Amino acid sequence: MASFQYIIKDAKGIRVEGAVKATTMDEAIDKLTKEGSIIISVKSASEGAFQGKLSLFEKVLLTIHKIRTGVGLKTLVFFTRQMSTMFSAGLTIEKSLSNLAKEEKSNKFRKVLEKLANDIKKGFSLSESMEQHPGVFNSLYISLVKAGEVSGTLHTVLDELSDYLEKIEDTRRKVWSAMAYPIFILCFLVVVVWGLFYFIIPMFADVYASFNANLPAPTLVAIAISNLIREHVFFTFLGLLAVAMAFFLFYLSDRGRYIVDRITLKIPVIGNLLENSIMSKFARTFSILMYAGVPIMETMELVENVVQNAVIETAVRKARVMVKEGYSVAGAFKKTGVFPSTLLQLMATGEETGDLDSLLRKAGDFHQKLVDSVIERLTSLIEPLMIILMAGMVGYIIIIIYLPIFNLGLAMQSGLK
Length: 417
Hints:
417 residues, mainly alpha, 3-stranded antiparallel beta sheet, 3 strands, globular, disordered C terminus
């Protein structure tokens, strides 16, 4: 009996993704339609139901679905480590999942574990069961579990996968810790500036009006913005929300995402941090897939889906085509002009020695050290830079407010002379 992946809308109109066991495609379709579902896509598990380009609307639905059903990376790391330990100790997968479900504090993830245990009882493999929860388990995770099942080394793969996820989580934590302070300062700055425009500037505007004096152009602009914010609070908020939504939809489009990701990588210091973080993730993902025995073409396809940057994804896609045409792996990646020389040299050496997974792991560690180094420099520089930025912005607005008073004082001085 084969497994078929599907994307459907159920009787309530909710988008659902998962897998169904059936002898033929027609039987799988019959099972789904009997439940009153509207079928969007049904494909053999070997093809993958989620491959190919999605429309913008489908991307929005998929994003919402992942937000609604997803769990934190820390939760997934702990689950993978516990599964590896229990499975190595001799417990069955079903028993391991049932034990973890009883101890799980998150209602959302507990329901996922219970569903996994029930699917195992019905005869699904662990990877097939996980395919029904794309918001929790990504394609990389599922492919590694599948490779472990086929090779009979599931406990080893789970152990390697938990190490990999821990390193990814550690990198993400370090990046966010470096970005948390500037994000907080910028949010605080927005609140301060909004307070100045909403409360302070109108008070001075009334004073200026009583003088009937000609105001400098910067002050007139500040008063106009203040009036706009005070008189149209709802529409101002609605406008900002519309801009945020437009940016979100633009970023979901292929072209928009490529433009934003390309600009992000060119930002001084921040771009370097993100690039090294992506390269560390790329090398480690490639390494663990090669270690698990996943074929090279499938490995490159999976790596493309996990780097989470359109520029790097495009480069990996081009390299995959070149490898299919007969190029070496290192040669194909070099021709894209995106990957750093150190990574390419280690990759080329790994191909020559047959030790590609080990050298890619070293490349991942190397780029992780670069990430740590950049974060240390950022930590020491960000605080004074943010204070200067905040002081400069607030000081500029205050100067604009007081500029007419300075002009008035100069006018009175010249009159007395």
